[in-house]
Each structure stands twice: as structure tokens, then as C-alpha cells.
Write a structure and sequence with these properties.
This protein is an alpha/beta fold and about 650 residues long. Helix content is about 45%, strand content about 20%. It has an 8-stranded mixed β-barrel with strand order 1-2-3-4-5-6-7-8, surrounded by 4 helices. It has a 6-stranded mixed β-sheet with strand order 15-16-14-19-20-21, with helices on both faces. A 3-stranded mixed β-sheet has the order 11-12-13. Helix 20 runs antiparallel to helix 21 (about 550-565). The two termini are about 60 Å apart. The model is unreliable at about 1-40, about 320-325 and about 645-659 (pLDDT under 50). It holds the Pfam family GGDEF.
């Protein structure tokens, strides 16, 4: 990953020609400058060229010294088994002299390429890395960086690397050739032949930076490597990005089916480490595990081993309203034959008469829609005495709606819905014209739009509540099942607002929505995003799945925060009275106190519940008990699940009411 050799360039530089071109460019505006100014400019550019050439010559000379005196330092970064923390091997990295511009492998190979010395430098890196790996007696495998370009060089002796290994006493089956792309690979046949040759000698193959290179997926398909390394871009921040999560998930699924082992690079935080582990990725490396070092450790720290052994599960990031933003008017497109403005009304009447399902006919001139003719309007007109005789042979534009609703195919459905709501009522029945850059494509109707909007809302509510943007029912159930399958000890807390419906009726749904949003923020703000899952079941019902050990303190903090915030949702008079009066369903005047919050919590021990259905039933019961307590309340059910409840003689002894 850190040393990426590049194919030698065939491009030659011609310093004298470049200088001549520069001088000619300088000479162009000569007539606008004095002779002295011109000569000064020429001298300045000549001096700059000389400095550049001198610096380049110095780097070339420095590179030759590095090669001659083997002034390269190998570093090793551990690669671990994610489930156990065992170090299974090391990636060999290289650094140039610390006091030189060639210290960085990027600069080192850039200069080597300009001098056509890439192959020599890469072989030297390989040899030095192998020698140091053997000298340090490091356990496990060595991942050795090799460029595909170097691997298929016609003048490269394929047995040279094997010779290094025999010299230092390493078995070939401990060496993984890690293909590191820096330029596109086109000759897959030649590369496949080279890989087959190396495999025959006992080496195994890995592809580096999957997802980042020019053709890494194609390489995977062509070479069928034993290992693939996911590029760090998709690993870093995976706990916050559902797209990165899905990418790694997909790669892991492909790898499992193809018999390939996945290695996640660039792990830098606890959350990333646990997320990668939970996804089933076998191996990992990164600064969180260990930095590259000249003399690396052979075991992990106690803290890191304990973190990996923690039986909690990572909280997956979720998509807010999965996919609803991608649906556009194109989804509603129906093919409806248009007519030109010159068509007579009699012809339009025949078209409606011949097709009873036809409700509207668009009028289009040179591809541009100019109006709509509706069945109801034309038939109604022609039903009147003498109107057909008078207007039957006239242009159909006479009875068309000259201001139809027109929308582009890329208009989002939720935006289109608002346009129709704001428009005149007749557009709801007439439908709308769909265009592509102003050109007629077809028609859409309100019935199809309502069906799609409804389905979008159902899907959005299942995956993410559109009001609070918290995960909905599907992610909630999935997270509970992951906790149960992993044998994790956790607490499931059902959260419900008291007196919310009458508040919604009296103060209006907008104020009610504001209270629900605030509740979602309070719950999220008092939970650990890396351990605790907050979901919105619907309405004023929420759920928290605590893995934090201080869950009780967090519950009390939630209640305190809600108590402090809720008075702001009421008028001054109702605040003073501590409530308000409204009518119930029977028309009776009822006094309602300010909204309160009830938390019903169930402690879940490993093996005591079998599914998210049982958790849902238990938390719903705990919520009912909490709501029986006047005011803000926390109810803790300490019973050990449905199986243990059968043996529980005294249920009350296992419950705790906290006002």
C-alpha cells in the first residue's frame, strides 16, 4: 500500500528543446518591452531552468547512491484475525533515507520511473524486506508489495524472488505477493500467466486497495486471488456512512462465495474496528491495530484484545428514507399518442369514441407540448346542439386546455406532489405532461402519483422515520436480531409520550411534530452512538437498545431533559395551570396535564429471548406498566425473558417501579 512501483516510462526529455520553446515563448511579446527587460526575463527563465536541471540531477545521483548502498528501511505493519486478535502476518513497507526527498515511497518510485530504474528499485525493496523479515523472526505471513507492471516485465527473471527467499530461509508459502496498482493493467493474459507461475512456486496472491485502483475488480475476476484488501477509503468512517457499509458488505459476500479472504485496511477507530469485525471480515490492519514499525510487536495490546473480545455489536449507520429521493416523474410515464394542432375536432372525437379508456389527448407542436384535450370537455361540448356541426372541422386547439401541467422527467415525486397540490383542482383529474428537456415524452396521472407516494412513505417508515430521521421498524428488528445472535447482554427501552394525542388535537400537528423531533434529539443526545441504538417505531413511540452499562443514568437524564424542555411547547396560561382542558370523544371536558414521558425497560440476558418479536412483546408490556405511574416514569422489568418467566413464582419481585 505504501510502496507502489510504477511502470518505467518510455517518454524521454529533451532539455535543450524545452529551453528553446521557453525562449521562443518569451520572445513573442518582445515589441512591447525594452531590450533590457527582455534580456532580464530571458536570464531569469534560463536560471530557473538551470536550477530545475540541477535539482533533478541531484535526485538522480541520490537515487543511485540509495541503490548502491542499499539505503532503504523496511517497516512492518501487523495484520490480525478480527475475531481473535491473533497476528497472522505483516505487510512489508519501505522508506528511503530519512534526511532525503526520497524518504517517501511515492517520491522514491517517481524518481526511479523517470530514470527507468523502477525494476531495480522494486527488486531491491523486495530483497531488503525479505531479509529483515527473516532477521526479526516475525511470525506468520509476509505481504510483499509487487506492481503488476514489474511482474510482467519480459526481462524479469521469475526465479529471482524465489532465490531471495531460499537465501534468507523463508518458505514460499509464507509469502503473499500483494499486487499494488499504480497504472492501468491491460495485458491480463500475460499477468495471469505470471501469477500462475508464481503460484506454482508456492506463493499466494493478494490484490491491494480494492475499489481504489484502475481495474481492481477486473483483476479480482481474472486472477482469483487468495486475498483482497479493501481500500481504506471504504473502511474509514464506515460506522457513519451507509454506502461504505454496503460496499464492504457486498465485497464480503462476493469473497465468501469465491473463497477469497478479505482484509480491511486503514482501521483507525474503535467503531471502525467493531464494525469490520461484525461484518465478518476475516483480517484487518490499520493504525488502530498498530502503526508500521521497523521492529513490530508480535502480540496485540491487552486493551485491543479486550475490545475485540467484547461481545457487543456495532451500530450500523442507516439510510434516511431509503431510496425515496431517487424516484422521479419518469416512474409515472405512460405512453399516450399526441396530436398536432392542425388535427380537427371530429378526429379527436373519433379517437375518444374508439378507445373508451382514453381520457386525455396531448396536443404537441414540433415536439413541444401546447395543450391537453380531455374526454369530458370535448364530449360535453359536442353534446350541445349544433356545436359539432359548427366546430367539428376546426382545429382541436379550440377546446384544449392551453395551460396544462407540464413537468420534466427528472422532477422528484415529492416535488411533483407539491406542484399538483398548489395547482388548480382540474389538474388533479387531467393529469400532467412529462417532458425531456422540453420535448414531449408521455403522460402521468394523479392516481399513479398517489400510489407511488404512498408506497414511498410506507418504505420510508419501515427503514427510517421521515419526521425524526431515526431508524424505523426494519432496522430496529435487524439490530435486535444481531444482538440476540451475538449473545449480547443489552437493555431494551420502550419510550412513549403521555397525553400526546390531546396535545396534538389542541395545539395542532405541527407543534406535535416539533415535540416528536425534540424527543428524538433528546434520546439520541443521551445515548452513545457507538453502542446504543435509537429507533422511532412510529407516532410518539420510540425504542432504545442500550449496550452502555450506565443505561439507568442515561434513562434518568432523558427524563430530566424532557421535563426541562416540554413547558416551552405550551402557552404561558397553560404552563401556569400545569395543563389545559379539551373535549374527549364523548364531548366531555377533560383536564390534561403537560406531556410526560414514560420509559419501560427490559434487561435482556443471553439466551433468555429468541427473537425480536419476544423483545417487542416484553417492552410493550413494560411500557404499559410505566404509563400506570403518574407523571414522568421509568419502569424496569428485571425478569429474565419468557423462558425464565415460566419458573418465576413472584413476578412482582422481579419488577421495579421508579417514579
Amino acid at each position: 500500500m505504501f510502496f507502489s512501483p510504477v511502470q518505467p516510462s518510455n517518454t524521454r526529455r529533451y532539455p535543450l528543446a524545452e529551453k528553446a520553446w521557453a525562449l521562443s515563448a518569451i520572445a513573442q511579446p518582445l515589441r512591447f518591452r525594452t531590450k533590457e527587460a527582455h534580456l532580464s526575463s530571458v536570464a531569469k527563465h534560463t536560471a530557473q531552468d538551470e536550477d530545475t536541471d540541477h535539482a533533478a540531477d541531484h535526485l538522480v545521483q541520490r537515487l543511485k547512491e540509495v541503490i548502491e548502498h542499499r539505503q532503504l528501511t523496511p517497516l512492518f505493519q501487523p495484520i490480525i484475525r478480527m475475531q481473535s486478535g491473533e497476528i497472522i502476518g505483516y505487510e512489508g513497507l519501505i522508506r528511503g533515507p530519512s534526511d532525503s526527498p526520497l524518504h517517501s515511497p511515492l517520491n522514491l518510485f517517481k524518481v526511479a520511473r523517470s530514470c527507468n530504474l523502477s525494476v531495480e528499485v522494486e527488486h531491491l525493496c523486495r530483497r531488503i524486506t525479505l531479509e529483515k523479515f527473516a532477521e526479526l523472526r516475525l511470525p506468520g505471513k509476509l505481504f510483499l508489495n509487487v506492481s503488476p507492471e514489474c511482474l510482467i516485465q519480459p526481462d524479469v527473471r521469475h526465479g529471482e524472488t524465489l532465490g531471495y527467499i531460499h537465501e534468507v530461509g523463508i518458505n514460499p508459502d509464507r509469502v503473499i505477493i500483494e499486487l499494488t496498482e499504480s497504472q492501468p493493467t491491460y495485458d491480463y493474459d500475460l499477468l495471469r500467466e505470471a501469477v500462475t507461475h508464481y503460484r506454482a512456486m508456492g506463493f499466494r496472491i493478494a490484490i491491494d486497495d480494492l475499489g481504489e485502483g484502475f481495474s481492481s475488480l477486473r483483476l479480482w475476476s481474472e486472477l482469483r486471488p487468495e486475498y483482497v484488501k479493501i481500500d481504506m477509503h471504504f473502511v474509514q468512517g464506515i460506522n457513519l456512512d451507509p454506502i461504505k457499509l454496503q460496499f464492504v458488505r457486498s465485497i464480503q459476500e462476493i469473497a465468501e462465495k469465491s473463497g477469497t479472504i478479505v482484509i480491511a485496511e486503514g482501521i483507525e477507530t474503535d467503531a471502525e474496528l467493531l464494525m469490520i469485525r461484525d461484518l465478518g471480515v476475516v483480517y484487518g490492519q490499520g493504525y488502530k491495530i498498530a502503526r508500521p514499525h521497523a521492529n513490530p510487536a508480535t502480540t496485540l495490546s491487552t486493551d485491543l484484545r479486550n475490545l475485540l473480545r467484547h461481545n457487543g455489536v456495532a451500530v450500523y449507520p442507516h439510510e434516511n428514507g431509503r431510496g425515496h429521493k431517487m424516484l422521479t416523474a419518469m416512474k409515472l410515464l405512460r405512453s399516450v399518442k399526441a396530436v398536432a394542432p392542425e388535427v380537427h375536432n371530429n378526429r379527436i372525437y373519433e379517437m375518444f369514441n374508439n378507445d373508451p379508456t382514453l381520457e386525455v389527448i396531448p396536443v404537441v407542436s414540433n415536439g413541444i407540448p401546447v395543450g391537453l384535450i380531455t374526454r369530458a370537455n370535448l364530449i360535453d361540448r359536442f353534446a350541445r346542439p349544433y356545436l359539432r356541426e359548427l366546430h367539428g372541422k376546426k382545429s382541436c386547439t379550440l377546446f384544449m386546455d392551453a395551460n396544462p401541467l407540464i413537468t420534466d422527467k427528472n422532477t422528484a415525486l415529492h416535488a411533483l406532489s407539491q406542484i399538483i397540490v398548489d395547482a388548480d383542482r382540474h389538474h388533479l383529474f387531467n393529469g400532467f405532461i412529462i417532458t425531456d428537456n422540453g420535448q414531449y415524452m408521455g403522460m402521468g396521472n394523479a392516481h399513479d402519483l398517489m400510489r407511488e407516494i404512498t408506497q414511498m412513505q410506507i418504505n420510508a417508515a419501515r427503514y427510517a422515520n421521515p419526521l425524526t430521521l431515526l431508524p424505523g421498524n426494519v432496522p430496529i428488528d435487524e439490530h435486535i436480531d444481531r444482538l440476540l445472535e451475538n449473545g449480547t447482554r443489552f437493555c431494551a427501552c420502550y419510550v412513549d409520550l403521555d397525553h400526546f394525542k390531546p396535545y396534538n388535537d389542541v395545539y395542532g400537528y405541527r407543534k406535535g411534530d416539533d415535540m416528536l423531533r425534540l424527543t428524538g434529539k433528546i434520546l439520541s443526545g443521551h445515548c452513545d452512538p457507538q453502542k446504543d441504538f435509537v429507533g422511532h417505531i412510529g407516532g410518539d413511540d420510540f425504542i432504545i437498545l442500550f449496550q452502555s452499562e450506565d443505561w439507568e443514568q442515561r434513562c434518568r437524564a432523558i427524563i430530566d431533559a424532557f421535563v426541562a424542555a416540554v413547558p416551552d411547547f405550551y402557552c404561558v396560561e397553560d404552563r401556569k395551570k400545569g395543563g389545559y382542558i379539551s373535549e374527549d370523544r364523548r364531548g366531555k371536558q377533560v383536564f390534561h396535564t403537560l406531556a410526560t414521558i414514560s420509559l419501560g425497560l427490559v434487561k435482556v440476558e443471553p439466551g433468555h429471548y429468541g427473537s425480536h418479536h419476544q423483545i417487542a412483546a416484553a417492552t410493550a408490556d413494560a411500557k404499559k406498566q410505566a404509563k400506570k405511574i403518574p407523571g414522568n416514569s421509568l419502569f424496569i422489568d428485571r425478569r429474565q425473558g419468557p423462558y425464565a418467566m415460566e419458573k418465576q413464582n413472584d413476578d412482582d419481585a422481579a419488577q421495579e417501579l421508579v417514579a
